Amino acid sequence: VAALAAAAPLAIGRRSLIPLAEGLCRALEHLGPAAIKFGQLLSVRPDLVGAEGAEVFERLQDSAPPLSARVIREVVERELLLPIEELARLFSWLPLLPHRFDLAAFVGHLREASLRETDFRQEAQVAERFRRAFRGEPQVIIPRVHWSHTTGRVLTTGFLTGRKISHALSRSGEGFSGLAELGARLFFRQVFEFGLFHADLHPSNIFITDDGKIGYLDFG
């Protein structure tokens, strides 16, 4: 509320919605992950917030403030009045859950999946699969993984220069319609021909190079 109140006079003085968008963006960052997701939605809806406003919200796509596991655990245990370990066993006895549902095993599966997803070697393997699949596409660039400098907690790839596909220069270029057709064709090949899934496919992870090629980043 304070951020929005401070932004309102600036918006009126400049006759621009950008200060309000900036204030709302800071407020959403302060409110946490659920609110940030709403901001990410606004970042791809220039029809609702205008092109300049959407550009402000774009930072929530790839530079949102982190939330530590310690904070999450503290909130859960404070609100539900039990240690998390006790809560997994307690929920197993809820009558609302079918008897065939093993909640403890389900939580264990989620934990295992989460650990896999935070292992950068998994993402590196997906990136390599994308590189192999699209090696016959001269208009696609996927940075090479440097395995000698990649571990579970460090991912090292080639450096890709360009601009986000949502950048004004990308949208206003003469070849944008052809670029859009290329992106659609590549997406259908990715899904229906290769059976690949990009786990974080938003505008900040799709780059357009200076020579008009499409570069994919951050496979999640």
Order of helices and strands: HHHHHHHHHEEHHEE
Structural class: mainly alpha
Specify Rg, calculated over alpha carbons. Answer: 22 Å
Mean pLDDT, to the nearest integer, reads 81
Helix content: 55-70%
Which ranges are low-confidence, i.e. pLDDT below 50, for 5 or more consecutive residues? Answer: none
Number of strands: 4
Percent of residues in β-strands: under 5%
The number of helical segments is: 11
Sheet with the most strands, sense and barrel status: 4 strands, mixed
Q: Oligomeric form of this entry?
A: single chain
Concise overview:
With about 220 residues, this protein is mainly alpha-helical. It has helices at about 1-15, 20-30, 35-45, 45-55, 60, 70-80, 85-90, 105-115, 120-135, 170, 175-195, and strands at about 140, 165, 205-210, 215. Helix 2 packs antiparallel against helix 3.
